[in-house]
Amino acid sequence: MTEKRPLTVVCLATFEKGQELIRECRRQGCHVLLLTPEHLREADWPRDSIDECFYMPDDFSLEAIITSLSYLARTRPLDRIVPLDDFDVETAAALREHFRLPGMGGTTARYFRDKLAMRLKARDGGILVPEFVHILNHDAIREFTRRVAPPWMLKPRSEASAVGISKVCDADELWPLLEELGDRQSFYLLEQFIPGEIFHVDAIVSEREVVFSAAHLYGAPPMEVAHEGGVFMTRTVPRASADAQALAVLNRDLVETLGLVRGVTHTEFIKSREDGRFYFLETAARVGGANIAEVIEAATGINLWAEWAKIELAGEHGRYEVPPHREDYSGIVITLARQEWPDTSHYDDPEIVWRLNKRHHVGLLVASHDPHRVEWLLQQYTCRFLEDFNARLPSPDKPTS
Q: What whole-number distance in Å separates Cα of residue 71 and Cα of residue 216?
C-alpha cells in the first residue's frame, strides 16, 4: 500500500498575521510554504512550523505569482492555498482556479471582497442592506441623492476595514470627491448612512453550514476610531439576548445566500437606531482583525485560525467537527499610546487574560463568566486609557496591519 504523503500548504500573507494557522498546519503534519512580501522577511513568523519561505516584491502581480508557484510545483506538489489576509482572498481564489485546487473560487470570493457584489447578492437574497448606488452612471447617482437623505458613505469596493471610506454630507460635497476619483469612480459605491450600533459575527462554516458563531458589539464604530482616534472596543453579546439570537439567524442566512462552502467569516451588521432592525454592512472570508480572534478564544477556547486550518486541510472529502468549547464572555480595549512601550502593570484586575505588546499601542483583553463584569471593566478601561495613554495619528490611506 502506498504511504499517504503530507499535504503541501501555501500560505499567502500580505501582512504579518495567521501564525496560529501556520502552526496548526504543521501540527496536522503538513509541508508548509509561506509566500510573503520582502519587507516582511524579518517578521515574527513561526519559523519552526514553516518548511520554506519565499519573498516577493511588494508590487508582485498575480501573473508573477502564478509563474513562481508553477515553477515550485515542478518539484513540490501543491495541495492547498490559504490567504491570511483580506487582500489575499481574491489572489488565493485565482490561484486555486489556475491550479485546480480545492477551496473558494473567484466568483464566491467576489462576494467576500467586493462591497458592491456582496450587497447586491445579499439584497437579492432578501437580506436588509442600506440603500446604495454604484458610482457609475451619473443620472443614477443624482436620483439616489434626491431620494436618499444625506449623509452618505462613499466606500471603495475592495478595501478592507475602514480604509478609504468618506462620510459625505450633501451633493455639493459629493461631486468634487467623485471628480477627484476620475477613472477610479467605478471602484466605489455610495451608501445610505444608518445611525446605530455596529455588531460583528465571527463564524466557522463547514459544508455550507455555520457550525460555530459568536456575536460581538463594538464600542465606537471602527470607522470612527480609524479616522478620529479614541479607543477601539468590542465585547461578547449576551448569548440569550434577542440581539444575539437574531444575529445568529441573519448570519446563517447570509452565508447561505453568498454561497460559502467552508472556511471562516467576519461579518458586520448595524442595528438601526431608528427602526431597530439589523442591516448587513459587509463580510469577509477571513479571521477578523484587531485581535478579535484572541477575544473569541478567551471566551470559548476556540482559536479561529487553527480551526480554519483544519477545515482547509479537510477539503471537500474531509470531515470537520467543532471542538468542545466554553460559553464565557470576553472583550478588548485597544488604543494608540503616546508612550513607545506603555506600562499597564497598574491594571491588575484578575479578569485580564492578555495584554497587547506593540509599539505605541496599548490593549487589554478581559474574560469572565459574567457579561456585566466584562462590560463594566471595559468601560472603566476606556476612560482610563484616554487619560493614561491615548494619542492620535492621521488615519492611513492604506491599512498597516
A: 44
